[in-house]
Every structure is written in C-alpha cells, then in structure tokens.
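Dear colleague,

As promised, here are the two records you asked about, laid out in our usual form so they can be pasted straight into your sheet.

NAME FIELD: protein one
SEQUENCE, THEN STRUCTURE:
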Amino acid sequence: MDLLLHQNGRFRKLAAAMKITDVLRAEHAVFHNLFDHIEASVPKLKTLGEVKALAAVVDKVHAPHSKLEDDLFIEPLEPYFDQMGQRETFHAEHEHIESTLIKVQKARTLKDAKKILLQAIAASRKHFDKEERIVFPLAERILKAKTLTDLGAQWLSRRDPAKK
C-alpha cells in the first residue's frame, strides 16, 4: 500500500503501490464519517442555506469520486456486471445520488431540503455498502493484482492537483 505525503500541492509516494480497491475503501471511510456528521447535523439546521451548503459539499467530493470510480474501476468490471444483470445499476446509482443532491439546491423549503439531503445520504450509504460487500471483493477475485495497483496509480495521477 502506498503512503502518500501531500506537500507543496503534490502527492509524493512514500511506500509500495496501492490497489484501487484499497484507495476506494479509504475514500469510502471518509465519506461514511461525512455522512455521520450530516445525519447528526441536519435536524439541527435552521436555514435553507445551511442545508444547501452541506449538499454542495457532498456533491463537490462525491462527483469526482463517482467519475473516477466509473472510469477506472467499474468499466473494467462491466462484462461481469452484464453476467449478473447489473451493468447499468452502478452508473445509475451514481447518477441518482448526483441528481438528488441537485434537487436539494432547488428545494424551496427547509423541510424539503432536509428530507432530500437525507435521502441522498441514505442512497449513498446503500450504494457504498453494495460496492464494499460485492464490487470490491469481485474486483479482487477477477482482476490481477498488477491491474489493481495500476488502477491505483491512475487514481493517484488523476487526483494529483499538480497534474490538473
């Protein structure tokens, strides 16, 4: 597993290569903490702007996660999802989460915005659980270790702000 040091706007590799599944599990851990915070905070929020700001944060971190996951990870597994009858499911779930977060921004009442944001968080948790229980283990059984580490390296190169 690579240990990364973020220094002067760049990621520097400190150890061995990291599998894409390990990278995504680590990202999911951060998301789960964010979701816990949002679920605890939303009932206490007093303004529509506060709810929309939280939704914007989730969207800002979820959108690049979904794109990289789709591009680097789900795409190589699509033939196996076809066999399981799940080919469109993972892309559709990402799109559903993103569209639900957009609905928060369009909400006109505090009550509606809270409800929609919590729906987006619930959908995200369900999706992440499916990936963690089914997709990541499937990838580790099907894809070669080198492929998984190559995908991890691709993730790193796309996440490095110096390369954007």
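NAME FIELD: protein two
SEQUENCE, THEN STRUCTURE:
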Amino acid sequence: MLRRPVSLGFVIWIVIGLIVASNKGFLGRLNDLSGVLSAVLAVLVWPLVLLDIHIAI
C-alpha cells in the first residue's frame, strides 16, 4: 500500500494550532467530549481563535 506523506505545512499548522489553543485555555478543559471537540476545533481553526472568536461545542 502506498501512503501519502504528511506535508510540512500541515504539521506546522497543527503545531501552531496546539500552541494557540493551549494559550487560550482550550487544552485545559479535556474532561468531557464537548471539551475535547472544542479543543480539536480550536486547533484546526486557530486563526479564528486568534481573532477572539469563541469556538465551543
């Protein structure tokens, strides 16, 4: 099977997203499913989080 390698841009996007989500407090509320989903969403759309758009499920 051939696997498509992960691009460097995607890795950088996720790393920056983790940093932003951590600084905004999304990674501290992982005690239930809604907290986990909010954290994942915050990591994926971190530019919106930087603009202070509240991402919560």
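A couple of things worth noting about protein two: The longest helix spans residues 8-23. Residues 25-57 form one domain.

Best,
R.
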